Amino acid sequence: MRLTILRHAPSLAGGRMAGRRDVAADCSDLAGLARQAARIGGGGRIIASPALRCRQTAAALGLIPDRLEPALWEQDLGAWEDLAAEALPDLGPLSMSALARHRPEGGESFDDMAARVIPVLQALERDSVLIAHAGTVRAALSMVVGPAALSFAVAPLSLTVLRRAGEVWAVETVNLRAGD
């Protein structure tokens, strides 16, 4: 089974954290959208996060989701929502495992988010395309590399592809950007 995950087009969050905030996407990169749509091709079942930015990206790609899956929402950043990146607290040196467990006040940790995303991915029975978030991509990667998935760059409008044979997942492609 092939799992293709497309991170939504750039969010219009004004450079602020937009985990669970429902912000729009900038779908003006028509060439990039066309390139990624061609790469996706007939990739199978289409599943999207219900976030506006994901639904807009799907529409811009000419894709109609078979379902909107609430479990694919981005990580809830709690007190960090709507903060500029430079305003985030300095957590000091943390191991990847400790970072994955860290929970912003009122939010969820990466591990919490992965615990709701991974069962959806494991339940897929045929080739599927997800239109989702960077956190969703990293949760999928964590099935192969564990908390080290937090170290992967996931650009807006990039593709990540995993394959499953039986219960074993393998990474085929990570962060294939629209301009690549």
Automatic annotation (TrEMBL):
InterPro entries to which the protein is assigned, alphabetical: His_Pase_superF_clade-1, His_PPase_superfam
A Pfam family assignment: His_Phos_1
Protein name: Histidine phosphatase family protein
SMART domains found in the cross-reference section: PGAM
Organism for this UniProt entry: Paracoccus gahaiensis
SUPFAM superfamilies: Phosphoglycerate mutase-like
